[in-house]
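For consistency, the fold was encoded as tokens, which produced the following:
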Amino acid sequence: MKRILTYGTFDLLHYGHIRLLQRAKALGDYLVVALSTDEFNESKGKKAYHNYETRKKMLEAVRYVDLVIPEECWEQKISDVQKYDIDIVVMGSDWAGSDKFDYLKDYCEVVYLDRTEGISTTKIKKDLGLQEPVNGVDQLPETKQERAKTENK
């Protein structure tokens, strides 16, 4: 059995995510998704729209996903590969050449898959008028009146 592992936040689940999961699963028999916890996202200055438990339930409902585990820190990847007997780690091609995951090649194969053109969580948030938090602080106005002022500018 060939086991695949990928990492991500998977917030605002969209077609690009589904396509990535489908292509990752096609590389093997069993797909493990390491889902960034809310605390880990905060440490990276990110805030997901959906909390960890909701994102986990959404991923578990996707037919390509066999197991969802928490991603709690950058340093857990080698232990994840070993614990879950992983053959291939799959990441988005935007990570290729960054050396962020290449060290895993000592433990398993690393495959970089192209992102789905024209869609991303960042683009969806921008199209909806949402902004990424800065240093973990949401940048949206707090009240409807403040939002209305921002939207009418």
Q: What stands out?
A: The chain is about 30% helix and 20% strand. The longest strand covers residues 30-36.
